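Side project, low priority. Logging it here so it doesn't get lost.
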Amino acid sequence: MTAYTLPYGHGQIVFEVPDSHKIDLLLPGTEGLQPQPDAAVAEAIAHPIGNLDWPAFKDAHTVGIAINDKTRPVPKPNPLYPLLDHLGMLGFEPEQITLFVGSGTHAPMAADELERILDRDILERYAVVVHDSDQSPLVDLGKTNYQTPIHINADFFHCDVKISVGNIEPHHFMGYSGGVKTAAIGLAGRDTIAANHARLTHPQARSGVYHINPLRQDVEEIGRKAGVQFSLGTVLDEEKHIFHVWFGEPGAVMRAAIPVVRRLFGVSLPAPYDLVIASPGGAPKDVNLYQSQKGLTHAARITRDGGWVVLLAACPEGAGSGAYEAYIAEAKSHQAIIKHFRSGYFEVGPHKAMLIARDAVRLNIVLVSDQDPQIVKRWKLTPSKPDLTGELIHWIVNQLPEDARIAILPAATRTMTELKNEP
């Protein structure tokens, strides 16, 4: 037996797997960690890439910075702080700068939660606006070439300088996170997000696809029309330390980052597995089912039809979407969910039910979580508890053939899996 330790919430789960089977531990790359991350961030900010530079905004009076909410990892160190220092050196006072928390369709963060993403001294010195896709004032910027209505937080749009800050990593249907997405989706109206996400069944809406991914290119156009001039992008390791950092024109940042992300997180495999044991990567990636599903996508992608996925996701905040919970409670089956979406139905929140159903109709999926088993059953998944993980794995392995292949994904949300013979 070999013991494995996977992230789970703010802790870990340890379990054993029999050595009688072929076992592959699939880990992201580890090269490139910055020995002096503060200096690397400052250097990137001082020398922006692309076609823009700081002097172009010497007459600006206000700055809006889009940042992620609590569902995204906060880098160590937080690159926002060197950015604020640089803005100060350029002559911007704290009262000229507003931080906009990009909630997307997530529940907006309460005031007492903000210290989870920002230090107290920042909260005391700078204005912080938590975006609400249903309640915040929005500006209408027309439509994209994909006919997505562009409704963006009006207060952010009217800032003279607009900056988007985010982590760049694989995204299960957007291709990649980061870049202008923090603003273009995080600070958008619900109808903008819904129209964009409605294309997630497109064959090119998958992790690792950028230039021909309709969702990602839609987001890029939203960012351009919203006037996002700069992007600050980081690539992180599992401990949230900075591998790489770029600053500058958003398109240039993405072009620089994507080859690095593919090299670090891309894993190409010769054949599917019988069992995949996966963790989204611990907190905050498994804060709820809404976020944990991203790890499920990468695990399912390399699992054979009829195989097993065991997802270790604490989900302390439950499903993460009231709309999803209402929808899944009424749905008859995974097959019925897929049929409903194929008929033309789409809604953000319930779309997670469709993404899960797409994998669940061909796989056996077990969710190891802190949630009550009856709640997990309402989500139409098989429940298990953390302290039963070893017994669960042992039972599943006993159902597998002698030549079964097993994969372990400690960072499933960020591990960009693909099969070599995939079209």
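Brief comment: The first helix runs from residue 37 to 46.
Revisit when time allows.
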